[in-house]
């Protein structure tokens, strides 16, 4: 089981998540393109993974029995890159190379470019299947690592996801956990307007999955859900994490127009001010 | 004459033994399964017809039937391939690499995962099922992938060797197989050197280079034999590796003949002939004729009739060779 967390650790993790959000804004500003909303929305979950859940070693990213974190919706890679840099996989200054020529930080993740990135992703709907393949390899090898796949809600409109859901249910892959970023937006609008996904819980249950719903900004609840997933023996588990797109930056929150856009200089300034003062609750020397 | 150095089957013109290339694939997988615990095999509801049912019976823990879901099969294999496994995925070429092309591009090729794509029922040889099941674009859509290996075995023995050999590399491969039984041209003694083109038919003074891929090699050899009877000497190359392409052997041959004819059961656009043409236009522009599907799908029918109608027969190769000689001398 993953260690339970106390209030001190929660405070530290929340600070890390806030720092990750700052790094996301800074890197997207420099890049001049990229996806703001989903990256910010998943900062808490990536913090939980990189600073509490994953059995990984940043100095040995190919460690044999490392837990695997697969990012299916590759477009939110700024949050992954920021979390990895903060965790020590590479220098934070490298974040400024995102989407630039000669960078290891491709606009969508490339496995062979950056150690610690488990799969190349971007085209939607393919991550769960790859996670299944990795989980099957672990079963064959009798290895004890866990496979975590992060997927978006919008990419559940891809047929491949349901092919994979069927397969994982059939194989009872209990070493596989899917985390869905349920932020309700996609490029063209709200998911339920574009192509309704609900009822997601019933859908996964009917595919023989164990289903958990959590607040994706409550790190403690999320860690508890991961522990619950690890205790389920007969089925794969899906954690439907309800998140607020653009979380932490007031003018970005819940606005689908921020799905695929970066902030400009003024907007970045405003966003960083809000993040660094925790919404004007504290005084920051950086403001 | 047949190249004696290659230990080819000497009875091929009189009474050839027949076996489908897919059978060579299935046998190689059984052998690999015995030798290598990291070999895994996946199919999308086509275990028997892609000849992986034997592997399924013998190694059930390393065999995964994904149901009718080729994208899922591709990406699951990609996950296995980045986790120390060598994954062979078996379906009809129309579906894999056809239907799942982008999934393969991203999760296997760009991701550099150790996956070997076995495309079965390729070409108009798939016959009665009709164009929906006759993959005639698969070479084009795989050879455009960076650093991809694209192999089309000429017979079941070469199919065995190509499959077996592919396991030694961690690179992605596309290997193309056909359904019907076709003449066994090579023997177990025939050397297999992946990426090298072998000259199966040699002459003292060849006037045309005939380059064939897959089972079409047999038709090329018949054409060469018939042309020789008419006093026309040729060289026949077995282009089983389309990517990488053995530039040296082709250049050596066309430097003697100054004319090349390419034969494939595939669209001429983007196929093996195109690959050779691209290379020659960069190095030594050479007169070329292309045999294959000419801007058309085929139709249902017996294989033999289709090969005749769509101009892939030995007779067609002979006619095109004569035309090419006229062009060269005209």
Observed structural traits:
heterodimer, A: 287 residues, alpha/beta, Rossmann fold, five-stranded parallel beta sheet, 10 helices, B: Rossmann fold, 2 domains, seven-stranded mixed beta sheet, five-stranded mixed beta sheet, 14 strands, 20% strand, globular
Q: How would you characterize the overall build of this protein?
A:
The complex is a heterodimer of chains A (287) and B (330). Chain A has ten helices and seven strands. Chain A is of the alpha/beta class. Chain A has one domain (7-276): Rossmann fold, CATH 3.40.50.970. In chain A, α9 links the parallel β6 (210-215) and β7 (237-242). Chain B has 330 residues and is of the alpha/beta class. Chain B has two domains: 4-9 and 191-329, 3-Layer(aba) Sandwich (Rossmann fold), CATH 3.40.50; 18-183, 3-Layer(aba) Sandwich (Rossmann fold), CATH 3.40.50. Helix content of chain B is 38%, strand content 20%. Chain B has twelve helices and 14 strands. Chain B has a seven-stranded mixed beta sheet. Chain B has a five-stranded mixed beta sheet with strand order 9-11-10-13-14, sandwiched between helices. In chain B, α2 (53-58) links the parallel β2 and β3 (63-65). The longest helix of chain B is centred in the C-terminal third of the chain and has 16 residues, at 314-329. Chain B is globular. The model of chain B has no long low-confidence stretch (mean pLDDT 97). Chains A and B meet through α5 and α6 of A and α3 and α5 of B.
């Amino acid at each position: 089981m993953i260690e339970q967390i106390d209030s001190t650790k929660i405070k530290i993790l929340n600070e890390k998540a806030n720092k990750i959000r700052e790094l996301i804004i800074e890197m997207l500003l420099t890049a001049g393109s990229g996806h703001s909303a989903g990256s910010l929305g998943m900062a808490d979950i990536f913090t939980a993974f990189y600073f509490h859940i994953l059995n990984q070693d940043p100095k040995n990213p190919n460690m044999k029995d490392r837990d695997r974190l697969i990012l299916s919706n590759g477009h939110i890679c700024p949050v992954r890159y920021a979390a990895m840099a903060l965790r020590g996989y590479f220098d934070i200054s490298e974040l400024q190379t995102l989407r630039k020529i000669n960078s290891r930080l491709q606009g969508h993740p490339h496995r062979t470019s950056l150690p610690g990135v488990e799969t190349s992703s971007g085209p939607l709907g393919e991550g769960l299947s790859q996670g299944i393949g990795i989980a099957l390899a672990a079963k064959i090898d009798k290895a004890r690592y866990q496979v975590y796949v992060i997927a978006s809600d919008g990419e559940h409109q891809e047929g491949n996801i349901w092919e994979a859901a069927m397969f994982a249910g059939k194989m009872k892959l209990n070493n596989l956990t899917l985390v869905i970023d349920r932020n309700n937006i996609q490029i063209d609008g709200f998911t339920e307007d574009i192509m309704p996904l609900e009822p997601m819980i019933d859908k996964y249950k009917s595919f023989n999955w164990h289903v958990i719903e959590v607040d994706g900004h409550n790190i403690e609840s999320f860690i508890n859900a991961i522990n619950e997933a690890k205790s389920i023996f007969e089925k794969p588990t899906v954690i439907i994490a309800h998140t607020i797109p653009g979380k932490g930056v007031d003018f970005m929150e819940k606005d689908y127009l921020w799905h695929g856009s970066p902030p400009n200089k003024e907007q970045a300034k405003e966003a960083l001010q809000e993040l660094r003062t925790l919404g004007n609750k504290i005084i920051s020397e950086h403001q | 004459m047949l190249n004696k150095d290659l230990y080819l089957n000497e009875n091929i013109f009189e009474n050839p033994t027949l076996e489908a290339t897919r059978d060579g694939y299935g046998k190689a997988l059984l052998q690999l399964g015995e030798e290598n615990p990291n070999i895994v095999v996946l199919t999308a509801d086509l275990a028997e017809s892609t000849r992986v049912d034997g592997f399924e019976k013998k190694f059930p823990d390393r065999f995964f039937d994904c149901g009718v879901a080729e994208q899922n099969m591709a990406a699951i294999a990609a996950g296995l391939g980045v986790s120390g496994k060598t994954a062979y995925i078996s379906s009809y070429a129309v579906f894999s690499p056809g239907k799942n092309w982008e999934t393969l591009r991203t999760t296997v090729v760009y991701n550099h995962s150790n996956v070997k794509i076995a495309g079965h029922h390729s070409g108009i040889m798939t016959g009665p099922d009709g164009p929906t099941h006759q993959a005639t674009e698969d070479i084009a859509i795989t050879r455009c992938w960076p650093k991809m290996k694209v192999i089309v075995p000429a017979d079941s023995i070469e199919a065995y060797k190509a499959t077996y050999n592919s396991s030694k590399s961690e690179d992605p491969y596309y290997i193309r197989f056909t359904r019907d039984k076709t003449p066994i041209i090579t023997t177990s003694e025939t050397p297999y050197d992946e990426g090298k083109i072998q000259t199966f038919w040699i002459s003292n003074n060849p006037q045309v280079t005939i380059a064939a891929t897959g089972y079409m090699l047999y038709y090329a050899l018949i054409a060469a034999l018939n042309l020789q009877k008419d006093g026309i000497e040729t060289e026949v190359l077995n282009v089983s590796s389309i990517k990488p392409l053995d530039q040296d052997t082709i250049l050596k041959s066309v430097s003697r003949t100054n004319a090349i004819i390419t034969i494939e059961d595939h669209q001429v656009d983007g196929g093996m002939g195109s690959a050779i043409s691209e290379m020659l236009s960069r190095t030594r522009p050479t007169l070329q004729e292309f045999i294959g599907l000419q801007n058309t799908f085929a139709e249902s029918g017996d294989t033999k009739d289709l090969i005749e109608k769509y101009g892939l027969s030995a007779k067609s190769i002979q006619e095109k060779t004569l035309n090419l000689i006229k062009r060269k001398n005209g």
